[in-house]
Write a structure and sequence with these properties.
Layout: H1 5-13, H2 15-22, H3 29-64, H4 68-98, H5 106-133, H6 142-166, H7 173-176, H8 178-201, H9 207-242
Helix pairs in contact: 2-3, 3-4, 3-5, 3-6, 4-5, 5-9, 6-8, 6-9, 8-9
Amino acid sequence: MNSSAPKRFYKEVFYLYLIQELHNNEAMPLFTRTTKNLIIKLDDFFDDIDLSLLVFREALKAYLNKDMTSFSRHLQKADSLEKNADRLQREIENDMITHSILPQHRGDVVQLIEQIDEIIDGVKSTLYEFDIEIPEIPDKLSIGFINLAEVSASAGEELIPAARAYFKAPFTVREKLLKVYYFESETDKVAYDLKKLIFHEMPELELAQKAHLRYIIHHIEKISDLAQKAADLLSAMAIKIVM
């Protein structure tokens, strides 16, 4: 019983290993092709999340620089990436169920993909908040908002290598997640300092504007919170799979 455990582990977790093992097995060509296609879809999904965070960062820079043409272009790109990520999410879940891929870990993987998809949903919704509400951000706060967007997006970006590692080298996942937690903590600090500056050192602002800015800050820092939730889930999954 114990001697067969490693074989089950590698068969169910390491996609690339599985493909190599089945490559010359003519009795299972469909399963091999399906697994290869699933790997491609997972990579494409993670690419979309990663790219959306770059778009998020650049869109906010454009908005703060009052370059609304560039902001609109980035908003459209974020919208396109989000739709594609949703499509890939549905296809990944369907493929795993239809072809019985990773049956023992399927629930965890589906939950992880859904949680990571929340990040790109957050990117899109935050940018639409800017587009719809057109918050008036004083020049004095521009650098602070840019810094906030940087650290919040960085938390999401650092999650992607860890998520990829789960399917190839799960024993490296937890160390890769350290940067996610670091940037999430930094996001909290930057957001706190920014809100304190607004409410304590800018008496020229109306209370309604201060409240609006706090609301916008919350949306920006939410990206790092979503990354942390996904990191918590991924960490637990990695522990289960290597034990």
